[in-house]
């Protein structure tokens, strides 16, 4: 069952985080330029570090091929890493933004 170990949870994490924002939290985070700048900064660090860790020529981190799609871009980075990265950063910023909003309305 290819992809079930890493791909499906990675996709589910994106759906859960985006769904939480659109259906429940409604912080407006995705409309903020500062959010997208933050995503770009994260990627600027994630790509070289993750690329070094997952390079096929001498990997530090090895993924079981049975548990991911096998799509790697750029620098041999499994695409699932970007999905989880997006979810982790976005969930953190959503929690922070929602918490700030709650403090200001209390």
From TrEMBL:
Record pathway: Carotenoid biosynthesis
Keyword vocabulary terms for this entry: Carotenoid biosynthesis, Isomerase, Membrane, Transmembrane, Transmembrane helix
One GO BP annotation of this record: carotenoid biosynthetic process
Listed InterPro entries: Lycopene_cyclase_dom
GO MF term set: intramolecular lyase activity; lycopene beta cyclase activity
Domain of life the protein comes from: Bacteria
GO cellular component terms listed in the entry, alphabetical order: membrane
Transmembrane segments annotated in the record for this chain: 6-25, 34-53, 82-99
All residue ranges annotated as the Lycopene cyclase domain in the record: 17-93
Compartments it resides in: Membrane
Topology with respect to the bilayer: Multi-pass membrane protein
NCBIfam families to which the protein is assigned, alphabetical: CarR_dom_SF
Protein name as it appears in the record: Lycopene cyclase domain protein
């Amino acid at each position: 069952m290819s992809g079930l170990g890493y791909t499906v949870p990675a996709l589910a994490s994106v759906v859960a985080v985006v769904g939480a924002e659109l259906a429940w939290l409604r912080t407006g985070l995705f409309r903020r330029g500062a959010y997208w700048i933050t995503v770009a900064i994260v990627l600027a660090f994630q790509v070289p570090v993750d690329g070094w860790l997952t390079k096929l020529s001498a990997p530090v981190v090895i993924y079981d091929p049975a548990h991911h799609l096998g799509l790697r871009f750029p620098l041999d980075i499994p695409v699932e890493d970007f999905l989880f990265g997006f979810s982790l950063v976005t969930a953190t910023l959503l929690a922070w933004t929602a918490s700030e909003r709650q403090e200001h309305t209390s």
